[in-house]
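User: Structure tokens for both sequences below?

Assistant:
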Amino acid sequence: MWLAKAKYAIWKNLNDVRATFPGADQVVVGSDKKVIVFNIGGNHYRLICAVHFNRGNLYVLRFMTHAEYSKDNWKKEL
């Protein structure tokens, strides 16, 4: 379901992303870059993506369980 929606989405900003996925959050990581966190599978998983709105590209950076996400180690690695 997530992939089907994201594949054809045309997002210009975070508000557009949230119109499609209301639970999406923007997070600043260790490199001072912004990523978007999606809740997947009934809030059991997290999908971390870089979205380049100006190019219309989405890059999957991490897929993890909620427990792994909560440890915050991933923020230091990105």
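Moving on to the next sequence.
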Amino acid sequence: MNRKDGNTSAKTVKGLICFRTTSAVVGFENGRKYDKHLDDLVRHGYSLFGYAILNNRFNLVGRFDHYRTDKNNSLTDERLFIFGLDYHPHENIRITPNIRIDTYNDPEFKSDVEGRLTVQFNYR
């Protein structure tokens, strides 16, 4: 429970389910935030994500998020897409070029497209 003041509170409810094989993972997460009582849904979002193993050095990765900040206004809808190729030349190094796309229902906001390079080092 998230305290807001002495008379009100907010509750966040989340769920996650994943399916895994030897060569792929797919998952779905759903979250909702309620104010005051469980009948008063305020924010809602869900995410679909996964990866597929191509070989011992490369994986395909992807993610889709949908988020609405105001239950009564579809203009607050936001969507995020991420696609990438995960390369691991060494067991402790990952290099992932990826594309991130943010889209909005509100016509005042333009879609954002970014190219990114994520480099991860694991120290063991």
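User: Anything stand out in the second?

Assistant: Residues 11 and 96 are 36 Å apart (CA to CA).
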